[in-house]
């Protein structure tokens, strides 16, 4: 049987115009502005207005990814962004499908928090290869998690890098261009309850109603030091493992990787990961002007690499991310036309 390639036809984005810069975050959190820039790695982030909902941003990114293609040609719309959406228990994929006019497409969602972008490429590649009716598939990630932050809550300070925005990726069957290769994921469920919005959900439903906690819809980390003690010894090695294994499963060695498109992280950590693969800073892209836009990060970094000439035809790019829970995932892409 002939190989069925699944390629990336186009990537579109939407970023709100309002900006919160490093000084704004410093003023809100009480953390010195220099620390926000150097330790947190943030120059600025985009901040969505009230009318710029998760669905709205995702729909605008989707329209840009379509780039003139009739949305009626879409066979499937998949949402893999933040679980904080327009409403609780809400099908954002269906909302985007309706808003962009993709009347012939089905819609569903994939949730793996901030590793969902890389992992969703694997899921959709497999679906499209096995089903010839899935010719044009749109993957959308959108995030407005800045609304979940309490900058006075020091327990959640590692999430102060959140920024709002959306990305959409148009995938096509039998497209010999920007071909999606293989994926690897690592899951460590010991971290499943370390980060959450604790007042939403069945565990604290009665308590929230009884104690009037409904207004405290914020992300929280009950045991920061405990999480760090467990996470710090393993996270770097897990990043290396998923990147390396994704390349190997695609038929390449670690030295064949040309570009890393990853989740938002401060410069020093990214440089350490790059050095492990004998790569330079120009073989990736820092997201200091975007912050952490959930699972859209890797798509932003990939597109910026192409835009700046850092990703060239024939390059092996690896998209990677990590999501609380905790998961690490990476997917290799062979860039260019073949």
Helix content: 25-40%
Instruction: Please tell me the overall pLDDT.
Output: 95
Low-confidence stretches: none
Radius of gyration: 19 Å
Order of secondary-structure elements: EEHHEHEHEHEEEHHEHHEE
CATH superfamily of the largest domain: Thiolase/Chalcone synthase
Overall spatial form: globular
Structural class: alpha/beta
CATH architecture of the largest domain: 3-Layer(aba) Sandwich
β content, as a range? 15-25%
Distance between the termini: 19 Å
Total number of beta strands:
11
Question: Could you describe the 3D structure shown?
Answer:
This protein is α/β, with parallel strands linked by helices. It has 2 domains: 6-177, Peroxisomal Thiolase, Chain A, domain 1, CATH 3.40.47; 181-337, Thiolase/Chalcone synthase (Peroxisomal Thiolase, Chain A, domain 1, 3-Layer(aba) Sandwich), CATH 3.40.47.10. The protein is built from 9 helices and 11 strands. The protein has helices spanning 22-29, 33-38, 54-66, 92-99, 116-130, 205-211, 224-249, 267-276, 297-307, and strands at residues 6-14, 19-21, 44-46, 76-79, 106-109, 136-143, 165-173, 177-187, 259-261, 316-323, 327-337. A 5-stranded mixed β-sheet has the order 1-7-6-4-5, with helices on both faces. Helix 3 crosses helix 4 (92-99). The longest helix is centred in the last third of the chain and has 26 residues, at 224-249. It is globular.
